Structure formats: structure tokens, C-alpha cells
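Predict structure. Chain length: 194.
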Amino acid sequence: MKGAPAEVYDFVFKGLLTEEALDRAGRKNRSSLLLSDEEIANTLSISSLPDDLVNEARQMAMVYTAVAAFENAVRELISGVLLESKGENWWEDSVSQKIRERAEKRRDDELKVKWHTQRGSAPINYTTMADLINIMRNNWDDFEAHIQSIDWAANVFDAVERSRNVIMHSGVLEKGDIERLGIFIRDWVKQVGT
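Prediction complete.
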């Protein structure tokens, strides 16, 4: 590449290789939603449920969208960073046996229920927020340039997980909780990127 520093070329090339490796490892195509919002609502008989509960749930659905995107972006960050630094065997080489075993047990349990969609094919899809922070902590040399402080990252994950747990168990967050969650997500994106 004429006029571009070799570091830029190397960075872009490594990024392309990372994307290709993630696709080979089973990353799902995000644009494969099969039904429109209206079709989903009709299929689920949303109109037959109490309006006030549906409205609360719709608001929390937006919060869920942010939390799910955040959590999966963290998984992609971890996969990409460790793939680049450790190679294609990063899961076996860089993740503790305890985390690997828990994730593989969750995956195996889901595979037994053949009639239901699994959460993914890559083992990292079966990790918890606590697992994710521990993977970064145990590979700190690889993540320090992105995160700067593992304690800060742990605080962000804790705040996100608190909100996640409320909405995943059909609770409703207050405005202050939603605002706090937004601050943590914005701070994460400014520090780490997406």
C-alpha cells in the first residue's frame, strides 16, 4: 500500500483474518431475522395480553437490546483479541479449565434439546459475564491496551449484569437504573470501541 505505514496495513490485514477466523468458528450472521416485528407480535398473540404489561415489557425490550449487544460485543472483543494474540486454539490455551468445562456443559445440555435453537456453536457463547471478566483478567497482557483497568471493567460488568438480571426475570428497571446502564455502556464503547 503506497503511502500507508506498514502498521496500518498489518492492522487491517489482521482484522480481516480475525473476521474470517470468527466466521469459520461459527459466528452467526446477525442479519438473519426471519420475521418482522409485526409478524412476531401476531405469532406470539401479544394483542391478547394486558396492555400495561406489554408496554412495560416493550420498554425493557429496548434495555435488553442494549445489554445483549453489549454482552455479545464483549464476547467478540475477547475472541478477536485472543485469536490475534494466541491463535486459533485460544479457547484451549487461554481460558481456564473451569470456565471451559462450565461452558461446554451448558452447550452439551442445550444440544440435548434438539427441538430448540442453541445460543451458538462457539464455546464462548456459553459463558457468563463473570466468566468473561475472568478470561480478560487471566489474559490481562492481551487486554490492557484496550481496557486500561480490569477493576473498571469488572465494575462495568457488575452494573450491566445487575440490570440484565432484573429484565431477564421479567422485572422493570427504573429510569435511574436505565440511565446508569447507558452511562456504563457509553463509557465502555468510548474506551474499548465496538
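Summary: Residues 86 and 103 are 20 Å apart (CA to CA).
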